[in-house]
Each structure stands twice: as structure tokens, then as C-alpha cells.
Design a protein that fits this description.
The chain has 262 residues and is an alpha+beta fold. It has 2 domains: 91 residues, Phosphorylase Kinase, domain 1 (2-Layer Sandwich); 163 residues, Aminoglycoside 3'-phosphotransferase, Chain: A, domain 2 (Alpha-Beta Complex), CATH 3.90.1200. Helices cover 42% and strands 19% of the residues. The protein contains 9 helices and 13 strands. Helix 4 packs parallel to helix 6 and helix 5 crosses helix 8.
């Protein structure tokens, strides 16, 4: 890392023995750094907005208090949850034990699907009607969904961790507040629709059945909108982001599969 002042302020502010700091170039926003310590790894992010910084802190603290497996916020020596640096805000996160889903399996097995669906549902139930001052999202589907919660909004295989029997989530920076079923449709699109495997309909059914379990009323109300939500989500992403050609093509493939199978 070339910014010596940044490294200095981290050393002065946190009770962490730093061996080295490297930028995570896989990060879309370019704001993620990895700290290697003697026995631990930490992630720190630099945010432009104080409001977003505070939302991330409140959300992570709340989820940890309720035993969801997500990164912890590491406090400074002065027991603060963030550190001001020039016009940005530094938040230090613990590194989740385990492995990213993408590094373990190419296709998600049924055992993992069952656990994943239950943890996503738990995230939604814990945060029902609690906004954490995050952006509200509404795809204008001409219906009013009763269940609203925090949406991770980006549950790719990169952002799902498996540690023995635990399922964990990282990177809530794209999180929104809105109808819980949005996350259901998004997760189906990310994990079970692809050019290489097509539409994995059995896995989609397993995921949906595990997420809703015996709750038939919400299932009957929300499932008819899965297709529309998934298509609206892709259009939203393509409008808001400048993706490379390969990523755009991947989303176009997903759209065709959604149109045909969902």
C-alpha cells in the first residue's frame, strides 16, 4: 500500500499488529483493504458517506447481537466504531472464518441450500420493518408486499461463507430496505440460473420450500412475483452500473432463463 499516512493512522488508532496491508482489487468500489496480522486477518473499508458508515455499523452490530454469522466491527483504541480519514470514514471488520461458497462448490448442494434459505429467512425476520436508514427499494410491481426487511441484495457465491455448519454473509454495502421477497428472487437468479448449468429448477424449488417452510399464505402471495422481481433487478443493475461485456452477457443469459423458466 502506497499511502503511508493511511497505514500510520490505522496503526495509531487500532490495537492491531499490522504485518502488511493490501488493496482488494476484486472489490467493485475499490474501497476494500486486507490487513494481515500475526494471527488474524482484518478487512477495512473506506466510505464516502457518514450516513452509510453509520448504517453499516448499526446493521452489523445488530446482526452480531442476534447471532447471525456476519463480520464484527472492530473498535478503535478509543472504543469508536469508525475513524475519520481526510474526507472518508474507515470501518474495520473481522474476517469471517471459513471459505467463500465459490471456492467450495461449483453448484450448490441441497444440504447447503436448506441452510442458506433458513439463514436468509432469519436475516429477513430479524430486520422486519427495521430500516437502519438504508435506501428503500421499490420496483413498482403494482402490489404492496406486507413483509419488508433489510435486503442483502447481492448474495453471490463470493458473499456467502461456509464455516463447518455455519452459513455466513459478508459485504452488506449494497443492502437496501424493501420487500423481503426481492432477496428471494435475487438469490435464485444469482445461484441457480447460469449459462453453464441453465435453470436448476429442482434447486430453486428446494430453496423456496426451505425459505417459506409451512408458511403458505406469504408463499402464495409472493411467489407469483418472483419472475417480475428478478427481471426488474437485472434492469436496475444494468442501469446503475457500468459492467464489462462479459458481465452484461451473463445478465442477458439470466434474463432469458428467467423469461423461460420462472
Amino acid at each position: 500500500m502506497n499511502d503511508n499516512n493511511l497505514e500510520k493512522i490505522i496503526k495509531e488508532s487500532y490495537e492491531i499488529q499490522i504485518n502488511n496491508i493490501t488493496k482488494n482489487f476484486d472489490s467493485t468500489d475499490g474501497n476494500v483493504y486486507i490487513i494481515k496480522s500475526n494471527n488474524n486477518t482484518y478487512i477495512f473499508k473506506m466510505y464516502n458517506s457518514l450516513e452509510h458508515t453509520q448504517s453499516m455499523i448499526k446493521l452489523h452490530n445488530f446482526l452480531n447481537e442476534n447471532n447471525l454469522y456476519v463480520p464484527r466491527i472492530i473498535q478503535t483504541k478509543n472504543k469508536e466504531y469508525y475513524k475519520k480519514y481526510n474526507d472518508k470514514y474507515i470501518v474495520m471488520y473481522s474476517f469471517l472464518e471459513g471459505s467463500q461458497l465459490k471456492d467450495i462448490i461449483q453448484t450448490v448442494d441441497n444440504k447447503t441450500i436448506l441452510k442458506l434459505a433458513k439463514e436468509i429467512r432469519r436475516l429477513h425476520d430479524l430486520t422486519e420493518n427495521v430500516t437502519f436508514n438504508l435506501k428503500h427499494i421499490d420496483f413498482n410491481l403494482e402490489t404492496e408486499f406486507k413483509r419488508k426487511s433489510i435486503l442483502h441484495f447481492d448474495l453471490t457465491k463470493d458473499n456467502i461463507f461456509i464455516n463447518k455448519d455455519e452459513i455466513g454473509f459478508i459485504d452488506f454495502d449494497d443492502a437496501k430496505f424493501g420487500p423481503s421477497v426481492y432477496d428471494v428472487a435475487i438469490t435464485i437468479s444469482l445461484l441457480f440460473l447460469s449459462k453453464s448449468r441453465g435453470a436448476e429448477l429442482d434447486k430453486i424449488k428446494t430453496f423456496i420450500d426451505s425459505y417459506y417452510e409451512s408458511e403458505t399464505q406469504n408463499k402464495e402471495i409472493e411467489l407469483p412475483y418472483i419472475k417480475s422481481i428478478a427481471l426488474k433487478w437485472i434492469d436496475y443493475l444494468l442501469t446503475k452500473n457500468s459492467f464489462d461485456t462479459s458481465t452484461k452477457e451473463s445478465f442477458e443469459v439470466k434474463k432469458k432463463l428467467i423469461e423461460e423458466y420462472l
